[in-house]
Amino acid sequence: MKSAFLAALVTVLPAYVAGQAQEYDQCGGTGWAGPTSCVSGTTCTVLNPYYSQCLPGTAVPSSVSSVSSISSHSSSVSSAPSTGPTGTPTPTAGNPWTGYEIFLSPYYASEVQAAVEQISDSTLAAQAATIANIPTFTWLDSTSKIPDLGTYLANASALGKSTGTKQLLQIVIYDLPDRDCAAKASNGEFTIADNGQANYENYIDQIVALIKQYPDVRVVAVIEPDSLANLVTNLSVQECAEAQTTYLACVNYALTNLAGAGVYMYIDAGHAGWLGWPANLSPAAQLFTQVWTNAGKSPLIKGLATDVANYNALNAASPDPITQGNPNYDEMLYINALAPVLQQQGWDATFIVDQARSGVQNIRNQWGDWCNIKGAGFGTRPTTNTGSSFIDSIVWVKPGGECDGTSNSSSPRYDSTCSLSDALQPAPEAGTWFQAYFETLVSAANPPISA
Ligand code: BGC
């Protein structure tokens, strides 16, 4: 029917050339049998392996063509109607996800695709393949990842223009000097002793410069997992005490400069089993409010992110025995306890909660265990239907299948937590793909994955 319609157009409109796709029409992709060239003034542009499209312009932007082998599509997690995104760095009140589609990380999609090819069980493979369509966050865990951000912004901008639905990109800012001061597995590329603060500022500057080029793409960022939580509870660790001033200066630099680029931000706030202990709540709230105040109380600093890369339930059916003694034994209880304290200090913060690997509960020996916990399953899918006015979205911050830390004791980043009996072994370096772990996340997913 479509081709008949096009043929009729060719007869009445000489400007339409037979065999050429029109502006914004499909012009390629896996299984595509239609025209592969575009009308004058447009260029066939690869958006993902399954879909190429005639976009206005004569040259293919290099940032778009460079991802021809990986998938970059989008997914909506919001059931709320569009409120008319501004697409400008002007902050809007309310939930940043409302009215936007989440741009899917092409990097994670390619990791998942490679993983699926290694799975021989066809049911498991089909289930695993669906994970590529669930939005995660892109971790900018070193300066080498920044060019990817440029590519994604360009792709997201093009997709937003071609579909008419604006795109939201989810990133994690994660490159502090002397990173992961109380553990070792995620030690980063910068050290305070070796120009770390200036290097970090340069890392932020590069990110900001890219984001400013694409004001039509909304960016949501989680700011520096574990950093401020370590300053609340781990100042007895020498490396954390020595990093305190630099962490605060760098986080302030990130918050103020990313706000200048219109980025919506959630500062990492550990999890229920860390800052959710009653004795930690007030010091944590004080530090977060201070950091928010020092950053000028920007409305773009929406609030806090909890449970990032952890395993806690949002609503536990019953307390996991390892949580004994803490009345805030799940993330909802933690947030309900923390939010009013922040409010008392003047900050109406809202939250996002990572549930990527929280599908299965009661699997840890101790609440503090965090490394590649055996038996974990993918959890509640990202949604803005959170059941709480404090929580903007349930999200998947940790890209499930990427490792938490190596179990190889001779590695410089070896952390003994990754050799505990509840940690799956052998495990590769943090951030690299851990196939066996991914497969169990899929098979143990809760809710289960229908393929
Ligand atoms: C690693 C990072 C990685 C992130 C997400 C962290 O534990 O240190 O390199 O990007 O997890 O997988």
From TrEMBL:
Protein's GO biological process: cellulose catabolic process
Pfam families per record: CBM_1, Glyco_hydro_6
UniProtKB keywords: Carbohydrate metabolism, Cellulose degradation, Disulfide bond, Glycosidase, Hydrolase, Polysaccharide degradation, Signal
Keyword Signal: yes
Single Gene Ontology MF annotation: cellulose binding
GO (cellular component) term, any one: extracellular region
CBM1 domain mapped to chain residues: 19-55
Keyword Protein biosynthesis included in the entry's annotation: no
PROSITE patterns the UniProt entry points to: CBM1_1 (PS00562), CBM1_2 (PS51164), GLYCOSYL_HYDROL_F6_1 (PS00655), GLYCOSYL_HYDROL_F6_2 (PS00656)
Annotated signal sequence range: 1-19
Active site: 180, 226, 404
Residues holding substrate: 139, 141, 271, 274, 310, 370, 398, 402
Name used for this protein in its record: Glucanase
Annotated source species: Phanerochaete carnosa (strain HHB-10118-sp) (White-rot fungus)
